[in-house]
Design brief:
There is one protein chain. This protein is α/β, with parallel strands linked by helices and 325 residues long. The chain has nine helices and eight strands.
């Protein structure tokens, strides 16, 4: 439920996500980051951080990586359907050695769930083809690997691209997703890896919004431990939060790598420090889970890693202890 206001690759190109996310040397067009002091881990379970300022917020990211003792290998950018392709931000992420999870949201950010101009039928019907084509050509010309996450959390009811809201019916999301994918395929954007990213089980069954394995290179899940911070929420362990969703994703897309696209924990209701440790241990034990991205922002609650000294210390220690570190 987090918004910051904001062609299927070939078998050769779609190597394992672990290979894709390996640190790469910055290209000459990307700004260098002299302040960088930490290195990217070689662990199978990759670290990503979602920060308020995005990949260009050098001071924010330096503070996070220095406090954790590790540089994140995955960056996140959020853009809505009114914004141009973020080449400068992609370059900023590449300069840090990170691969970007580019989250592309088909709405006008902040406009609410009811947005008739952004119904999935409009996208599937070609109303935005010129805009989508511009993005596809720009990313193809950029040329470096990028993870494209179109319309995430589509199984909830809080975004206008979800089925069963905003005039969309079952199958609407899939039709729009496939259309966008096919536009990219037509322009030869083979550097784009397609990420299908539902929320942990929510309002719409995952099977209804799954476009099929031929349209998905990487699967992902978003999930937050709200603890007792809300009247409707309760404390959930990482396994309670993600276990059933990971099972559903595996059944729909067997053999596909899995990312945890967004995750964080509240402090209220339990020990966030213990939860952070359990998260890394639980995900490290899943052989097909290749990374997680922490939502490091004080928003509905203080989701930040450093919401308390104990939380920060626990996550840093857990990351240092994970296999392959």
């Amino acid at each position: 439920m987090r918004s910051l206001g904001l062609a299927r690759v070939t078998a050769t190109a779609a190597l394992s996500l672990t290979v894709l996310l390996a640190a790469t040397a910055p290209v000459s067009s990307a700004p260098m980051v002299a302040e960088r002091t930490q290195t990217i881990s070689g662990a199978h379970l990759r670290l990503g951080v979602i920060n308020a300022g995005g990949p260009a917020a050098t001071a924010e990211l330096n503070a996070v990586e220095n406090s954790l003792g590790e540089r994140p290998s995955i960056a996140v950018i959020y853009k809505d359907f009114t914004q141009p392709t973020p080449i400068a931000e992609l370059n900023a992420a590449a300069a840090r050695g990170a691969t970007t999870l580019l989250t592309w949201e088909p709405w006008r950010a902040g406009g609410g769930v009811s947005q008739p101009d952004f119904q999935s039928s409009d996208i599937a019907g070609g109303a935005y083809d010129a805009y989508i084509t511009d993005w596809a050509r720009a990313l193809a010309a950029w040329g470096q690997p990028v993870l494209l996450r179109y319309g995430h959390e589509m199984n909830g009811n809080w975004y206008p691209w979800a089925d069963r809201v905003n005039g969309n019916s079952d199958g609407s999301y899939v039709a729009a997703y496939k259309h966008v994918h096919d536009v990219f395929a037509a322009v030869g954007a083979s550097n784009v890896t397609w990420v299908w990213n539902p929320n942990v089980p929510a309002n719409v069954p995952m099977s209804v919004v799954f476009p099929g394995p031929g349209y998905v290179d990487v699967t992902a899940l978003d999930g937050y431990n709200w603890g007792t911070s809300q009247s409707w929420s309760n404390w959930q362990s990482p396994e309670q939060l993600f276990g059933s969703g990971i099972g559903e994703v595996r059944a729909l897309a067997p053999g596909k790598p899995i990312l945890i696209g967004e995750v964080a924990s509240a402090e209220a209701g339990g020990s966030k420090a213990q939860w952070n440790t359990q998260l890394v241990q639980y995900l490290s034990a899943q052989p097909d889970v290749t990374g997680f991205l922490w939502f490091d922002i004080n928003k509905e609650v203080d989701w930040r890693i450093a919401s308390s000294p104990a939380s920060l210390s626990a996550l840093a220690s857990a990351l240092a202890a994970r296999p392959g570190r």
